[in-house]
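quick one: flavin-adenine dinucleotide bound model?
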Amino acid sequence: MNFQITDDQESIKASIEKICTRFDARYWLEKDKHGGFPNDFVAALAADGWLGICIPPEYGGSGLGITDAAIMMRAASEGGGGMSAASSVHINVFGLHPVVVFGTPEQKERYLPPIARGEVQACFAVTEPNTGLNTTQPRTRAVRSGDKYVVNGSKVWISTAQVAHKCLLLARTTPLEEVKNPTHGMNPERVPIAAEAVGLGHLALSHAVRYAKDRVVFNRPIGQNQGIQHPLAQNWMELEAAWLMTLQAGWQYDNGKNCAAAANSAKYLAAEAGYNACQRAVMTHGGFGYAKEYHVERFMREGMLPRIAPITPELIMCFIAEKVLGLPRSY
Ligand SMILES: Cc1cc2nc3c(=O)[nH]c(=O)nc-3n(C[C@H](O)[C@H](O)[C@H](O)COP(=O)(O)OP(=O)(O)OC[C@H]3O[C@@H](n4cnc5c(N)ncnc54)[C@H](O)[C@@H]3O)c2cc1C
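yep, here:
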């Protein structure tokens, strides 16, 4: 068993961290206050070829694995931008994976190189207003008409849809009652989301630790109190445990093994650990945790995202209960 990150993976981490230093906390605070897509951040990653990390070399990418993408996405989130940074590139980095795995050569030639170059921004549309987490039953239908599909339906909550040029759309081509296997393999996507949540949690933790060292109350730094120290130590341990599960899920996928249980567990553990760290960072800052200028309130808001999307904690527990523990399906 080898837990050592390779030299190449260390170099991925260092390269992303270096890019992130050009987009400091004030940059993300401005984006948060005034809105607007972080085009220059995306362009910086694209310029160094990072958007094609999982795209095969013959289509302009680096052909690396999902573990490498997880290391990249953790660094992108932890580098200061949190989920704002990660979400801006998440779909370009891994969302087009169904095209890599299932696409025809013509589709790959057409869609993947512009994604790898960052010329095309993509989004991934699964969620529907009235279907909820019952994603095996999308109402959106794609019906073949000559050499085209006619699509009818509606989608909500599609990250980056406002700026996307292309959309990977989940639609049924065959009515559900005629389908033999109604599920789709969306488990690998849980791995980069988990990595982003770990990155966000460590980002929040670093702010909390810095503040706990600097803030003096009762003539000593608040970080000298065990009541402040212990929850932060607990956050660190939870984040590291979640990171190990994330790497295990990535390793399983990259080695052709079934990663469903590990990927779902990683997403659950990382999202909870990430949110706990964000919440604790706000509490460590006391009243200042509520002020935008201290950034941690943004982290806490963003910490909700990997809990809710692409699947909630409840549905992950339903999945583990049924598929791992063999309990009757509850949903
Ligand atoms: C910021 C953000 C970005 C997003 N980006 C995207 C995107 O890019 N693409 C995309 O397709 N979607 C995206 N989503 C949508 C997200 O994936 C969905 O909101 C999520 O999957 C939950 O679906 P829902 O909102 O319909 O919840 P619902 O299905 O309505 O569920 C509501 C609540 O009920 C619980 N629940 C439902 N059924 C059960 C059950 N049987 N047992 C126990 N609990 C249950 C759920 O766990 C949840 O807590 C995004 C959401 C957010 C907030």
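The mean pLDDT is 94.
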